[in-house]
Amino acid sequence: MLGKWTTSRLRPDAYAIFLIVFSVCAFQPGGLFRFAWIKLTIALLGCGAAIWAKRHGRLPTAMKVALGICGIAFVIACLVGPDPFVSLVGRWPRYEGLVALGTYLGCMYTGAKLLPGSPENAGLLTKCAAVASLALALVATLEFFGLRPLGGGEFDRPGALLGNATDQGIVGALLFATLLLPAVRKRSWLLVSGAAAAAITVATSGSRAAFVAGFMSLVILFATSWKSWSQGQRRGVALFSLAAIAAVAVALVVPASRARLMASSTVEGRWLLWTESLALFQDHILTGVGPSRFVDLLPAYHDTIWAAQVGTDYPPDAPHMWILQAATMGGLITLLPVIACAVGTLFFGIRNLVTAQNPLERESKLSYLAAACSYGVALMTAFTSPGSGPLAFFLVGGLVGLSRVPRPVKQTNPKLRAGARAVGVRVALTAAVVVGLVQAIPATIAEWPMKAGKDLVAHGQIPRADQQFLAAAALRPWDADTAMLAAQAFAAASSEGNSNAGKSAVTWAEKALAIYPGSVESKLALAVGLNATGQAQKARDILNETIASAPYNAELYMQRAVSQAILKDPERAVSDARRATELNPRDAAPWNLLSSIYNWTGNTQEAHVARMNAENARSGR
Prior knowledge:
By secondary structure, the protein is mainly alpha-helical. Helix content is 73%, strand content 1%. It has 28 helices and 2 strands. It has helices at 12-22, 37-51, 61-80, 84-89, 98-114, 119-144, 165-186, 189-205, 208-225, 231-253, 255-262, 265-283, 294-297, 304-309, 322-355, 359-378, 389-400, 414-445, 447-458, 462-475, 480-495, 499-515, 520-532, 536-549, 554-566, 570-583, 588-601, 604-619; strands spanning 57-58, 402-403.
C-alpha cells in the first residue's frame, strides 16, 4: 500500500514523514489524557529522524530569521513573567512550552528539508496521509453513529483519534487539502478513498471552524486547478464535491451535530472570550501576561454575562484566535514576529507556487498552500494543539521551502569543511531533540499512573491513589498541573464526604501551588480539601484572596459558603450561596447548597424554593 518497504527504502526521510503524519492517529490507551504527549513524542521522533536525512530543500533565510526572532520573543516573554520556569516547560492541557513549540518548528524545518524538490517524498506523504485519513474517518464515523471505540460517555462530544472535535475537523481539512489534487491526477483508489475519508472526517466533526477550513481548501484548489483538469477530471471532482456536501447535510440531520452547528451560545461565548482577551492584551500590551498564564488571569476580566453563559466548568487556556493567542502570551514582543511569520508564509508560498517549473512541484505547492490557508482560518476560532500542530507546520514547511541548489564553495578543502559543518549542525539538532525527548517520554508514561490514580480515587482507595500520583509526579517533577489534577481528583472525593481524600487534596494542592502559586484551580482544590478537613478559617482566607482575582467564579463562592457555614456564620453563608446561584443559575449545585444552608438555619420555605430551582436547573427548565 505504501510502496515497496524494503530495507533500502526505509531511509530517515521516510521515517520522518511516516512519524509526523501518523502522529495525528497516535493515542495512548489507558492514559488519562491520551492525545497530547504521545503525539508530541512521535512527532519529535520524526523531527529527529529528519535531521540525518538527505536534504532536498531549505527554509528561506528571511523565514529562518523571523522564526528565530519568534523563539527569542517567546523566551523573553517567559523570563519577564512571574513564573518563567512554568512558562518555559508549558502547562496542561497543551503544554506549549519550549518542547511543544520546538516540535512544531521542527516539523516546519522537516517539511522544508524533505518535501521541496523531491517527488518521491511528496508521493510518500500523500500515501501516508491517505492511510491516516482512512483511520481517522473510521473512528469518526463510528463515533458519529453513537459508538465509542475509544471510550467516553454517550453524551460526550468525541474527537476521533484527536480527542477534540475541532482538532478532528482541522486535521481532516489538512488531509483533504493534501490529497485532493493527487487523487484527481492519479485516480488511485488509495488517494481517492483518502480524500473522501478526509471529507467525512470534517463532516462528522460538527465543527464550524473545520467546515470553513475545508471549504477554503476546496475553493483554493478549484480556483487554481480547474482549467488544468480534463473534462473527466472536472466531472469527477464535481461529483466528489457534491458527495462532500451531502456528508455535511447528513451531519446536520443528526441532532447532536445540528445542535452544535446551529447553536448561537458558542458564538456568543467566543465573542465574549475575544472581548475579554483583547482587554487583557490592552492591559499588558508590551510583554503580555506570559506563556501558559492566560487561564488564571482571564477570570479577572469575566462578568456576570460570562458566568451565566459560559460558566466555570471548562476555563479557557487560550483565546481561540491565533492573533490574540500571540498577543496575550507575549504582547507586541511576540505578536509582531508571529504576524511577520504568517505574512512570510504567504509570500514565500505564493512565490514558490508562481516560480514552480515542474507540474508535480506546482501541484504539491498548491496542496500545501490550501492546507496552510485552511489552518490559518481555522485558528481564527480555535487554538494550536499537539493534535493538529505537527502536521500543519510540516505542510507549511513544504510550502515555504526552497528546492536546494548546491552553492559553489571557494574555500580550500570545501567538501571537508562543508561536511564537518553539516555534521556539527546535525549533532546540535540531535542533542536538542534528545533534550526534548527527556521531557516528552516520561511525561507520556506519566499518563498511565495519572489515570490509575484517578480511577482509584473514584473507588475510594485513597492510599493507593496517592502512590499512583506520586509515581506520575516523579516522572513529571516540573509539572505543577500533575499535582493540580491529583488535587482536583481528591477534592471531588472529599466533597462527597471522604475525609482521607480531603487530606490528600490539601497535600497535592499545596504541592501544585509551590510550583505555580497563581493557579486558581489549585487554590479551589485546596479550599475544598481544607473545608473537608475542618480547616474552614484557612479555606475562607484562601477563597477571599482567590475571589479577588476571579470575582465571577461561582464555585469559589460555593466553597466560601461552605466555609461560612462551618464557621457558624449563616448570614454570610446564605449571601455567598445566593451569589453562586446568581452567577450560574442553570446549575443545580448552587441551588442545592443554598437549600441545605436554608434548612440548617431553619428557613424551610426558602429551602423549598431553592430545591425547586435546583430541580428546574437539572431538568433544563
